[in-house]
Design a protein that fits this description.
It is a single chain. The protein is mainly alpha-helical. It has 2 domains: 120 residues, no CATH class; 49 residues, no CATH class. It is 46% helix and 9% strand. The protein contains 4 helices and 3 strands. The protein has a 3-stranded antiparallel beta sheet with strand order 2-1-3. α1 crosses α2 and α3 crosses α4. The longest helix is centred in the first third of the chain and has 42 residues.
């Protein structure tokens, strides 16, 4: 038999469909692995254990941990950076950001920043949630729009409302 264009196209299409199915089957595994990696790294950071591994920027973003929290060892200022907004390669380790996160108020001889954790929300959101929760507890009549905003942020960041989940800098 000779060259059959239709058969070749069918084979290519079937092969592409198999590859797409295999990719779809592994997407949940990638998300699960990224979540486990970031969780393990956060636990090691919280216990101040030696850093044996570091998640990549891409793994942190994939797992939904968009903010890298860092602290200046000199002045104890804590801040965070949105990993989605950085112009760094996604396969770079989050520890590669350490020199770039040095404290601006301690310059010109600022020490390297200490990486605290990867977080799903920023410090500003956490502060706003805590302020909303405190105002809800102390007042009965609150404007409707602020309570809706607070409810939205609280639902988005449920893990922060658990006791004992504070950053080490506070």
């Amino acid at each position: 038999m000779g060259f059959n264009k239709r058969k070749m196209e069918d084979r290519r299409r079937q092969e592409a469909e198999r590859e797409a199915a295999a990719r779809r089957a592994t997407e949940w595994q990638i998300l699960e692995d990224a979540e486990q990696l970031v969780t393990a790294w956060n636990e090691r950071q919280a216990k101040r254990m030696p850093m044996l591994f570091s998640p990549t920027i891409g793994a942190a973003i994939t797992a939904g941990y968009w903010f890298l929290r860092a602290r200046c060892p000199a002045c104890r200022t804590t801040g965070d950076v949105d990993l989605r907004a950085l112009d760094w390669h996604r396969s770079a380790a989050v520890t590669a950001l350490t020199p770039a996160l040095s404290c601006r108020s301690c310059r010109p001889n600022a020490p390297f920043a200490e990486l605290v954790c990867l977080s799903k929300g920023s410090l500003a959101e956490e502060y706003f949630i805590r302020a909303c929760m405190a105002s809800h507890a102390s007042r009965d009549n609150i404007r409707r729009d602020s309570s809706e905003t607070c409810a939205y942020l609280a639902a988005r960041n449920k893990s922060w409302l658990l006791p004992g989940r504070r950053s080490r800098g506070r």
